[in-house]
Amino acid sequence: MDHVARRVFPYYFAPGKKLFQIVVKMSDEPGSLGLILSLLGSRVNLIGTDTYTMRDGTAIFSAFSEALSTEETPEKLQGLVMSSKAALACEVIEGRDGMLVDAFHTGLEANGEGTMLFRRIALARMLDRTHNLLGSGGDFLLYEEGFAIGKANGEDFVKMLGREKVNEIIGYLRNDISAQGWGRVAVGEAPQADSSTIIIYDCFECSEKSSSRTGCHFFRGYIVGSRLATTGQELSAEEVRCTLKGDKVCEFLLTPKK
Ligand SMILES: [Zn+2]
After folding, report:
1. Burial level of 185, CB count in 10 A (0-12/13-18/19+)?
2. For 180-238, what is each residue's pLDDT tens digit?
3. Cα(102) to centroid(ligand 1), Å
């Protein structure tokens, strides 16, 4: 099966459509979701849904949907959902002028921590601005910021799993980077015994193709910070290939820090 980017719905635009966000608080029991879905199936076309446990015996189902009838209303949908014994509460919010914005969620949470979404292109332009204003000082700053985030994320895994386990399954844990849309990480061939190579496909720093930057300093710092947290090794990273320079991938050569 081809792996794809996960579709998320902070908003959805479909001109001419009658759009609803349907949020249901339901009992966290097997079959609850099936009951809600079977009720909604004949009334709306589900564009994207999320379901997650609240770990208190309840779960939240949130759906972006297009009404199948122009007569549909939030009140009718709410009444329909609440007729199910699985539903504990329901909120239906209608979109405006073909635009549906998530008006229910108050943020994002990943593993209990507040998280944010950025558009990749917007973030790449933010990095451009830092480079354009500060030159090589800006590149150094981006490296340091990447280092800080890489180290914090690495420390988080070590806290949860212990350093030994993290290193045992590090290849699997790296999926976390691509799941969050930063780029896909692979290990390349090491040119010598004490070095290693990390390859990033579809690196977010390279999203802005007309960038004046010539390298991925944030990611370079991220890799070094992450390695320090997970292995205790102080490394230097050199980016030997970069999408911003016309290469197909970004590639970092890691060697012990001298
Ligand atoms: Zn690069």
Report:
1. buried
2. 999 999 999 988 889 999 999 999 999 988 888 989 999 999 999 999 999 999 999 99
3. 34
Task: Say how many Å lie between the CA of residue 220 and the centre of ligand 1.
Answer: 9
Total-model pTM: 0.89
CATH number for domain 11-115, candidates 3.30.70.260, 1.10.357.10, 3.40.50.720, 3.40.630.30: 3.30.70.260
CATH 3.30.1380.20 fits 120-256, yes or no: yes
Q: Compute φ and ψ for 226, nearest 5 degrees.
A: -65, -45
H runs (alpha helix) in the chain: 32-40, 74-82, 120-134, 136-161, 163-168, 170-173, 175-179, 217-231
Q: List, as ranges, residues with CB under 5 A of the ion ligand 1.
A: 216, 242, 250
Measured in Å, residue 129 CA sits from the centre of ligand 1 at 17
The residue to which tokens 């007569």 are assigned: 71
Domain with CATH 3.30.70.260 in the chain: 11-115
Do the beta carbons of residue 25 and residue 82 sit within 8 Å? Answer: no
